[in-house]
Amino acid sequence: QIEVVESGGGSVQAGGSLRLSCTTSGFGFHNYGMGWFRQAPGKEREWVSSIIGTNPTYVDSVKGRFTISRDNSKAQVYLQMDNLKIEDTAVYYCAAYLPRWVFGRGTQVTVSS
User: 3-state class of 113 per DSSP?
Assistant: First the structure.
């Protein structure tokens, strides 16, 4: 059974940092790309970042502020979010590309002024 479970969300003031973690099981983690998506209130879910092997990619709005990484030995992927902005407020979802995206249930990130 494939499982994708996010943790690390919370509330932070603008300019602060949070680190999201994603723990997975049920598939060969090191063989697959992983990603983070987010959905803000009233908006569609958007792709934020992916990592395939050791190669990260980012949506333009988070470049230079967010860093994705993975630990294949732990089957985990992380999203370090620095210099958070109010517009980063959203539910953040971890996803595994298997090869369709398989999502976790999400974790709330709230950035306030």
Answer: coil
Nearest to 67 by CA among 53, 52, 51: 51
C-alpha span between 107 and 11 (Å, rounded): 11
- Please tell me the distance from the alpha carbon of residue 40 to that of residue 45, in angstroms, as a whole number: 7
Q: Tokens 């973690």 label which residue?
A: 21
Q: Among 58, 112, 47, 106, which Cα is nearest to 80's? A: 58
Q: Which amino acid is at 56?
A: P
d(CA 93, CA 105): 7
pLDDT tens, position by position, 47-57: 999 999 989 99
- What is the longest distance spanned by two Cα atoms in the chain? 41
